[in-house]
Design goal:
single chain; 5 strands; mainly beta; 10% helix; 87 residues
C-alpha cells in the first residue's frame, strides 16, 4: 500500500503495482440541474484527472514509497510528512 499526497486522492492508501512510476486517476462528478439543460440527450459529468508520481524516501531501515501529486516536488511531500501529515 502506498500513501497518496495531494490532489484528488490526498491521504488515501492505495495498492499500486511495484512497476508503476506514475498513476493517473479520474473522478467523475455529476453536474447539478442548474448547470445544464434538463432536456439534453446526455447527462453532463465533470471529469477531473490527476497524475501522481512515485517518490521513494530512504529511512534508516527501509524505503518508503509515496505517490505525490504532479504539482508537488519530493521536497514538498517530504516536508508534509515530516510535519505530521494530516490530509
Amino acid at each position: 500500500m502506498s500513501l497518496f499526497v495531494g490532489g484528488l486522492r490526498d491521504g488515501d492508501w492505495i495498492n499500486v503495482p511495484d512497476n508503476r512510476e506514475s498513476w493517473t486517476m479520474q473522478e467523475r462528478t455529476r453536474l447539478s440541474a442548474a448547470n445544464f439543460d434538463p432536456n439534453a440527450p446526455v447527462e453532463p459529468v465533470l471529469i477531473r484527472q490527476e497524475t501522481y508520481q512515485r517518490m521513494r524516501f530512504q529511512g534508516l531501515k527501509e524505503t518508503y514509497t509515496v505517490y505525490g501529486g504532479a504539482s508537488l516536488t519530493p521536497d514538498d511531500v517530504l516536508k508534509r510528512l515530516i510535519e505530521g501529515y494530516k490530509p
